[in-house]
Amino acid sequence: MGIFAEIKEDFSNAYKNDPALNSKIDFLFNYPGVWAVAWYRIAHKLYKLNFKRTARIIMGLNQILTNIDIHPAAVIGKRVFIDHGFGVVIGETAIIEDDVLIYQGVTLGGVSLTHGKRHPTVRQGAVIGAGAKVLGNIVIGEHAKIGANSVVVKEVPDCSTAVGIPAHIIEKGRCKDPFMHNMLPDINKEMFEYLLKRVAILEHILMKENKDLLDQDLELEHIYESFIKSMKN
């Protein structure tokens, strides 16, 4: 497939991925992610032909216009859709396979200053949620899903969902389900709830077996309240 055929396919793919796209005017002014990929395809072709400076200039201008930073040496497959797109960063050695969906604020970045492969590989059909940071030479598996604002520093298997900072795998073996941000669990909230319940149980056991501890705890509470009142005064 030629470069202009790929760009035409990218344009058509936008209509498939976003029900809010209703007109060519909308497409022209409100879809920076699609235009960024289109300019990338031209710059990438020039980069491979060793017109590296020209390619970098094109992507620099693209960054000014779209607020999306894509290195022309990165490898981006067919029908990759960057939704909204603002703040997306795709590093030099990143590889993105076909049919990947990327939301705004995503970074595919490196954690090493050495030459060679130092950016992520995102396999076919993966979804990277808004604000997610995928860092280092790791692989995001086919149809994997990365939750919004997650920080991924380890590989994610095929058909898995990863969320959190750092990201943890919370679900495996589900490839075709839609990416529902509101259905992802808040693992930090769940952990805090667990710890609070655990502390309450331990306190109950201690107080039940040691009445002296209860008296000391109440005394500490009074001291703390007095301290707070004195600070306010």
Structure write-up:
With 233 residues, the chain is an alpha/beta fold. 42% of the residues lie in helices and 15% in strands. The chain has 6 helices and 15 strands. The chain has helices at 3-17, 24-30, 32-48, 52-66, 187-209, 211-232; strands at residues 69-70, 75-76, 81-82, 89-90, 95-96, 101-102, 107-109, 121-122, 127-128, 133-135, 139-140, 145-146, 151-152, 161-163, 168-171. Strands 3-6-9-12-14-15 form a 6-stranded mixed beta sheet. The chain has a 5-stranded parallel beta sheet with strand order 1-4-7-10-13. A hairpin with a 4-residue loop joins strand 14 and strand 15. The radius of gyration is 25 Å and the shape is elongated. The N and C termini lie far apart (75 Å). The mean pLDDT is 84.
Gist?
With 233 residues, the protein is an alpha/beta fold. It has helices spanning 3-17, 24-30, 32-48, 52-66, 187-209, 211-232, and strands spanning 69-70, 75-76, 81-82, 89-90, 95-96, 101-102, 107-109, 121-122, 127-128, 133-135, 139-140, 145-146, 151-152, 161-163, 168-171.
Draw up the topology in text.
Layout lengths: L2 H15 L6 H7 L1 H17 L3 H15 L2 E2 L4 E2 L4 E2 L6 E2 L4 E2 L4 E2 L4 E3 L11 E2 L4 E2 L4 E3 L3 E2 L4 E2 L4 E2 L8 E3 L4 E4 L15 H23 L1 H22 L1
Parallel strand pairs: 1-4, 2-5, 3-6, 4-7, 5-8, 6-9, 7-10, 8-11, 9-12, 10-13, 12-14
Antiparallel strand pairs: 14-15
Question: Which characteristics define this entry?
Answer:
six-stranded mixed beta sheet, 6 helices, elongated, alpha/beta, 233 residues, five-stranded parallel beta sheet
